[in-house]
Structures are given as structure tokens and as C-alpha cells.
Fold:
Amino acid sequence: MPVLVVGGAGYIGSHAAHALKRHGYEPIIYDNLSTGHSELAAGFEFITGDGFDSAKLNPILRRVDAVMHFAAHAYVGESVQNPRKYFHNNLLGGMALLNAVLDSPVRKLIFSSTCAVYGTPPSVPITEEMPRQPVNPYGVTKLMFERALEAYDHAYGLRYVSFRYFNAAGADESAEIGEIHDPETHLIPSAFEAIHGKRPALDIFGDDYPTPDGTCIRDYIHVTDLAEAHVAGLEHLAHGKSLAANLGTGHGHSVREVLSTIERVTGKRVPHRIAPRRPGDPAELVADPRLAEKTFNWKARRSLEDIVTTAWKWDQTRR
Structure:
């Protein structure tokens, strides 16, 4: 089955393309390379384009049976400073893609959503039934696209799965692909930059949260586990109903726990310093992944140590 992977030259999209190939699908990567990297699309059919270009999309959509949509800007802080950029790309660009899909024979779509749609949750772990009350423009754009999918499913029978990611991390075990961001904001690769002297120290944003060691707790899920869920979601749509589901491990790790794991795996000290809290950072974000586990017969299997080990292996290929 041919599958169009929009944003497939990015971090998560490229891992999804590899997972699709492992399971016998035929991924076609479509990316405008505004934040993606052509090296992550190596070995696949690759078409440069964006969601606004219906003339380019239309003939491609006639060749595929399903679409995976990963294309989005994803820096929370930037979305607060420049919401226009986020509403233009994530919402207007996403809607242009969605309408192109609607005008094609394709009726199956997997959407890359986020736990940011929940905002600051009333409790953890976070279930899909909790209110969706995003606190930044990034989360708002993802929620609005989820709403559009709900309406299109009801009106037009366009079936979808919206996957709400928690903290994706790690790299493919082969070290052929991994995380590339500029600027880098994610904890583990930022810690590696501090190890290599590319930044003076890793900033820990707050050490006075109501957590056991005072630092934020997050649910870190290996990007390969995340990618495998997308394949399972696609298989579900062959006979199942549309839904939104959390993707996480159900277990949280504090920033200090992650740094300890990095130092153990790499054998190197991570220079770090305490910085002020970032506005809007909840103390704890942990998924309840039971809906995804039950619906897709899927489970996150890789540990925090696996995440750090594969990320470090990828990092070493780029030295």
C-alpha cells in the first residue's frame, strides 16, 4: 500500500517512513524542507512541496491509499512570540492539505497531534477524556486541526487517527536517522550539546517544582515506538473507527533523572545550571496510554536508557 508521508523529512515523520517500509508499505515522502532534512528521506521516493500546493499534491494523492500528516512548526515558545507563523502553517497549510485529501479518493489519515492540546491538566496521568484547553498557539493550532478532522469524519466519512504525542526522544537503532533541530530545544540532544561544548551549560528550567527532586517530570517515549504506533493506527483504519489517542509510556522521568541516565550511558558529565521556570510549564505531564494499547495492540517497549543509548549513537555519527 502506498502511503504519503507529509513532513516525512522531519524527525518523527522520517521514523514513521522507516516503520512503514519495515511493515511492507510504500512510503512517499513529501516535505518542503523548511524544517526537514533531505538526508532523513534518503532511500525513499521524495517530492519537495508543501500543503498549499494542491496542483502538486493532486496527482500524488491519486497514487496513494492513505496520508500521514507530520508537517508543522513545533516550538512552543516561538508560537507565543509569532502566532501568525503557526496559524498560517499548522492550520491554514494543514487545512489546504486536508481539502486536497478530501478532493481525492483517499479516506484514511493519520495526524501528528500533541499533548499540548490538554494545556495544564487537572491531574496525571492524562486521559483522552480530559478537557482540551491548550495554553499556547502551538497547542491551539493542533486542537483546531483535530476539530476539523472530527467534522470531516462526520460530514464526509474521512477516517482518521489523531495521535497525541508526549515527549518523543531517541533515534533509530540503526543510527541512520535521528533528531536534527535548529535551534535545538529538546532535553537530550541539548544535553549532548553541553557535553560537546556547543553550549556553555544545559539550562534546567526550575528546580522548585512540587516533584521529588524539584524538576519537571515528563513522559519520554522512544521515537521508534511512536513510529510503530502510526503503522498500527493505519492498520486500524482499514476496519476501525476514527479516534484520538495518547502516545506515551505511562511513566514519567524528571529532568535530573534524565541527566543521570545521560551521564551513565555516555560516561560524561553534563554541564548544567538552574534557570528560571518557563511560563506555562506544568510540573508533571504523563500519559495514560491504555486506549492506544487496547485499540492498536501496541505498547511502548523501549526504556529511557534505550532512548539515551540510541540518541547518543546517532549523535556520535554526526561528530
About this structure: Residues 2-168+220-247 form a domain with the Rossmann fold fold (CATH 3.40.50.720). The longest strand covers residues 108-114.
